[in-house]
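[#protein-structures] MJ: dropping DNA repair protein RadA here for a structure pass
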Amino acid sequence: MAKLRTAYECSACGHTVAKWLGRCPDCGGWGTMSETTPMASAKATPSRAPAATRSLTPAMSIRDVPAEPARHRPTGVGEFDRVLGGGLVPGGVVLLAGEPGVGKSTLLLEVAHKWAAGGGGPALIATGEESASQVRMRADRLGALHPDLMIAAETDLGSVLGHIEDTKPGLLILDSVQTVSTTEVDGVSGGVTQVRAVASALIAVAKARGMACVLVGHVTKEGTIAGPRVLEHLVDMVAHFEGDRHSALRLLRGVKNRFGPADEVGCFEMTETGVVSLPDPGGLFLTENSEPVPGTCVTVTMEGRRAMLVEVQALVGGSAKEGVIPRRTVSGLDAARLNMVLAVLHRRSGKRVLDREVYAATVGGMRVTEPGADLAVALAVSSSLSEAPVSADIVAIGEVGLTGEIRRVPAVPRRLAEAARLGFRQAIVPKGCGGEAPKGMTVSEAGSVDEALRLSAMRWAGRG
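AK: finished. structure tokens for DNA repair protein RadA:
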């Protein structure tokens, strides 16, 4: 009889060691090693069948491989389909993650309803977090009732597979993969071993049946997807549903996509009737003022392939007392980049801001972290400091360097086209990025922050 041995597995990454350790040697997590059921050493290395006895699928020319099985099928939710590259793919598996309460279940209920109503076949929602009655109440509120929309409240993998066999759905939504377990492997529900086994089984069924599948995943307090990292490698697409609970805006951001672009972003609005697609969120992050206000400047940021206008606001307060560090409060912007821009304004442009309190934010709950917003932050801070407003029809695009230069950023023509579409008539961009200006727009190139400050002041003086 084979000798039994004890192993310890990390609940964060799945790394296995022969003896207990306080810290996982692979991922560095503390207190994550737990004992697994003893296994026979004879089973540790499965025997391999001889190559001659294994059935092989004959290789074929790539020109003879049919592409139809990988065609997208639209769900009817426009922004969801946009991020997926055109819709769900039969046999494709999507992993959707997000913070608790952000609206993942609401969004997927709408997707399932549109799929069933659009003739895509039955849609099955297997929920391990809610009862069938709770899902029905949400469906009543959203108006998402259809005979082909099936609900099953299950936490056992065998039961979920049985429902798949009975209903033969074209779309399966599992909410969530961490709540389902199987008796075939050891471990608690949501553990590394269970999550890996459940996901692998559902992926195999989806591929065999040509069934689109969406797995809902939990996130950790660091914002990463809970469970083994291999889960993200197994699925065909990984998407994150993001949003602030205090804001109606929701963003669906693609991270990985085998059937389309991996950098698309979809915009949604959370309303009382559900999650609504925003195909044109152009003015959502701008304020409407009759007259320009000091301390504001508009920039154009890239979210995936989408250009979005965002208004940056800054308020420069009084000087801090001697020996006291001035307050810096940021909302929607990168605090490190704000401090860098303030240092450049102080040292290169003679703006005494390092000893002043500075507050900076974006409008509408939009989070902007790309360097292309640096110039707008600099103009907004300078405008608040001097009480001289920036012209309301100017957009500023560019990255600010430590020497005071303005560096190039990608996709400037696309940004300018979006700004011109929304009525902006002037733009300040880095040197060499002007190119052919959109119709009705004047584009000025600036090589430094000082030059950009002069251009914005001239534009406002010209309008005054």
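MJ: nice. Residues 39-53 have pLDDT under 50 and may be disordered.
AK: one more thing. Residues 39 and 45 are 11 Å apart (CA to CA).
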